[in-house]
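Bug #77: duplicate submission created two jobs. Keeping one. Sequence:
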Amino acid sequence: MGRINVLMTVGNPRTGERSAEFIAIADTGATLSVVPASVLETIGVQRRRRVGLVYADGRRTRRDIGEVDITVNDVSTTCAVIFGEPDDATLLGVTALELLGLVVDPVQRRLVPTDYLNYAFS
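Kept job's structure:
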């Protein structure tokens, strides 16, 4: 499918402080987004808890997560993100994509709006 880079902004939902915009990889295989810890620390995002992560190659590690406002394509949502370490890729994960109402268009290699799914039965 190829790599899809997106312009993403994160902010501290408690203070309203925003970081600079940066490029992230839209990764539908990643549950949570990964943002450099230095960016999150600069805007005062608190580490809430530590979670286990599994990489595509099967390796396991643990990382801290916190809550941020994420903005992509002029749409914002609040969600959990991973405090990325220096060797971690900056990612926009599927949880944020779903909350933002965006999906990956693999042909045009971009994010596009989509309807939310609701499978409740009457």
